[in-house]
Write a structure and sequence with these properties.
Elements (H helix, E strand, L loop, with lengths): L2 E2 L5 E6 L5 E7 L2 E4 L9 E2 L4 E2 L5 E6 L5 E7 L2 E7 L7 E2 L5 E5 L8 E5 L4 E6 L4 E10 L5 E7 L4 E7 L2 E7 L4 E4 L4 E2 L5 E7 L4 E7 L2 E7 L4 E9 L5 E7 L5 E3 L8 E4 L3 E2 L2 E7 L10 E8 L4 E7 L4
Antiparallel strand pairs: 1-2, 2-3, 3-4, 5-7, 6-7, 7-8, 8-9, 10-11, 11-12, 12-13, 14-15, 15-16, 16-17, 18-20, 19-20, 20-21, 21-22, 23-24, 24-25, 25-26, 27-28, 28-29, 29-30
């Protein structure tokens, strides 16, 4: 899944014709490799995340098969943490990287921060948490947003900052389940998908005015898979409309606000698959999406759409 910074630069992972995979950055049309497999690392094994300074983080394998968190910055690739977990890391503009650690013992996995000089554990499997999901997102001031399962059998979205935690939402009286990929902007607004106790799917935004529901399943959409949020609190979401197919939307009208979706005509073919995640949007509302086409092509696109 690709990422985009506030300059509109896009980073993505791709398989190479010669074998293996690497990370590339598109800057104004030019596509540049971030890392050279075989020289810097053996292979890239996750999506990348890109900050405004052009620093790029990702998971990689060493020639010995060990997994690590790598940071490419100022023409140099270095290891900043061992034992990286699934999916991929995220990075803020100070160069601090958040990632899911995956230690050999299942009770040692957790959410961590690394800056190349020190590593900090934010949360870990233990008496309180039983598992973590999605991407831990790191924002200004090293605030970290993550989604966790609790030992009590519930789910929670938590914002951690300066040793303090705030539960943005949790399952219970209102929520039956929470989406695995909550999103956050630089102002600390949090967007997420959830299933209500009524069984309806919905998307929410938590900000200065409190928690508010943006859309639910009583309207033209029957289910919501995920949501991204820009710097103004505008959202782009992926959802399935009634009697329709999964798509990406920048507003509440499933026809007018549809950006693309499964079966959509695109670049002379039809969309068969797409992928994006919380780092696929920037503060200005530009998004980037990885798209698979029916004719066998795979493309990474950028859209200057703004959020709802």
């Amino acid at each position: 899944m690709p990422s985009i910074n506030n300059a509109g630069e896009v980073a993505f992972q791709a398989s190479l014709r010669a074998g293996g995979s690497s990370v590339f950055v598109s800057r104004g049309g030019a596509i540049e490799p971030v890392v050279e497999p075989g020289r810097d690392i053996a292979e890239v094994v996750s999506h990348p995340a890109l900050n405004d300074a052009g620093a790029c983080c990702f998971y990689a394998l060493t020639p010995q098969g060990d997994r690590l968190v790598a940071l490419a910055a100022a023409g140099r690739v270095r290891t900043i943490a061992p034992g990286a977990g699934p999916l991929g890391p995220t990075i803020n503009n100070a160069g601090v990287v958040a990632f899911r650690a995956a230690s050999p013992g299942p009770d040692q996995s957790g959410i961590c921060l690394a800056d190349g000089a020190s590593n900090t554990t934010i949360a870990q499997v233990g008496p309180r948490f039983s598992a973590f999901h999605g991407l831990p997102l790191v924002g200004p001031g090293s605030a970290v947003l993550f989604r966790a399962d609790t030992r009590a059998g519930g789910q929670a979205i938590i914002l951690a900052r300066d040793g303090q935690e705030r539960v943005v939402c949790a399952t219970g009286e209102r929520f039956a389940a929470l989406g695995a990929f909550p999103a956050m902007n630089d102002a600390g607004q949090v967007a997420f998908a959830a299933t209500l106790r009524s069984g309806e799917s919905a998307i929410f935004l938590d900000g200065p005015g409190g928690l508010r529901m943006l859309l639910d399943g009583s309207g033209p959409f029957e289910s919501f898979r995920g949501v991204l949020v820009d710097g103004a609190g505008g959202v782009v979401f992926y959802a399935t409309p009634r009697a329709g197919s999964l798509g990406v939307y920048a507003g509440p009208d499933p026809v007018r606000d549809r950006l693309l979706g499964i079966g959509t005509p695109f670049l002379g073919s039809l969309v068969t698959e797409f992928a994006l995640n919380p780092v696929s949007i920037n503060e200005a509302g530009q998004i980037t999406i990885r798209v698979a086409l029916e004719d066998g092509r795979g493309v990474v696109v950028r859209g200057d759409v703004g959020g709802m």
